[in-house]
Amino acid sequence: MKRFDIENYIAQLSMDCVIFGYEEKTLKVLISKFKFGEESWVLPGGYIRKTESINGAAIRVLKERTGLENIYLEQFRVFGDDHRIVGHPFNAVMMDELPKFDAERFDPEVTAWMTGRFVCIGFYALVDIQKVSPKNGEFDERLEWRSIDDIPTMVYDHNEILRNGLESLRQNLDEKLIGFNLLPETFTMKEVQELYEAVYAKAFTASNFQKKILDLDVLERLEKKFTGAQNKAPYLYRFKNSIQVNF
Amino acid sequence: MKRFDIENYIAQLSMDCVIFGYEEKTLKVLISKFKFGEESWVLPGGYIRKTESINGAAIRVLKERTGLENIYLEQFRVFGDDHRIVGHPFNAVMMDELPKFDAERFDPEVTAWMTGRFVCIGFYALVDIQKVSPKNGEFDERLEWRSIDDIPTMVYDHNEILRNGLESLRQNLDEKLIGFNLLPETFTMKEVQELYEAVYAKAFTASNFQKKILDLDVLERLEKKFTGAQNKAPYLYRFKNSIQVNF
């Protein structure tokens, strides 16, 4: 393979993405087992081309890993400590293994570029987990959906990035009504409540919750869901607005 | 003067700061009349040294311009459009005037570096305006405190950066109780209310406002303010916590 074109990317600036999905009443994050090192987990991320906006870079990286376009996406914080990468034990692993992996593609100059200091822009994304077909990037051994209660220790400051992303999701869930991006197109009120409970890691009272959500006037009520038991069939709802993208 | 050391800074990454102050019942922002171009206004900003964190860079730039340390400071968004600088009319002005200003310090390589694409991290700061002695940076003709109702058209996307900073301030004022950083050490309840009214650009009812603020249990009541009129003297308050810095 040809040399990695560091000339095409902004140096020392990267983006990592906390990709949230939701299934089986559980909030999950898509993380990557890296090809380098042992038990080395990372958030999916990438570099920013000199010819694309930072949001364009995030959209591109997300499409590469999930196959999806039109994802709800939001930048939430920059991680810019000068020692977040350089001096970290995993960095020595990268310096050692990158050239062995592909000496032509990752020559000494490219390896030095990749293992130097990076300021990282944190994005989070909300996806319908059923629609995602995770696809490995060049350095991913495999991608896994992991419950937020079951996140391994990741390299560098990636656990801190994830924690910050989750905190932003919680702050924005109510305020910007972004949670519906985690659900399929139609859903029951109980499913909305279960989603909120999974995100906030606490229980809500069904009657209060339903009233609060309906009062927002953002849901369209559809036909009853067919369950076989006619009397207990719950209504299906659909979010009135289209996907909101924050830029 | 010696050549500007581009080697010491991260390329293509900058920071700009919305410095908020408050006086005469008015929320103000410290902006700079630039030395280059005509009627060219900018937010104070700077570059990030390879050996300092992004927060360290913001603290350094703020100290250079205001003389203050221990400022409440928060990053609020990254501005990363690929066309935010390159192609903007002011960029041509910079390319033309920088070398004329000091050909030795800003040689062709430095001029090209400074007028290329930059991704910009937006910070906002809250300062006690009485304590600030604005000090020009190398490119500032003068710094001015301007009311948020009287902000001129600034270069590049600096008006957008300011609008986003103000929006973040409004969101955080209640949630994180950061407004007290804009007041002197002791203040009356009326002064707190006037501050909130200036930030939100709307009026509050005095009794409701006082109850809401006191219920937060973050203020310490001190002696009455001496006004000469014994009966009407208002109480002075002090914020219980010290300055909060978000990193």
TrEMBL record, chains A, B:
Protein's organism:
Flectobacillus longus
PROSITE patterns noted in UniProt? NUDIX
User: Source organism's superkingdom?
Assistant: Bacteria
Annotated membrane-spanning segments are none
Give one Pfam hit by family name: WHD_NrtR
Q: Under which name does UniProt file this protein?
A: NUDIX domain-containing protein
Query: Domain Nudix hydrolase spans what residues?
Result: 10-170
Q: Which InterPro entries match?
A: NUDIX_hydrolase-like_dom_sf (IPR015797), NUDIX_hydrolase_dom (IPR000086), WH-like_DNA-bd_sf (IPR036388), WH_DNA-bd_sf (IPR036390), WHD_NrtR (IPR054105)
Q: Which CDD domains match?
A: NUDIX_NadM_like
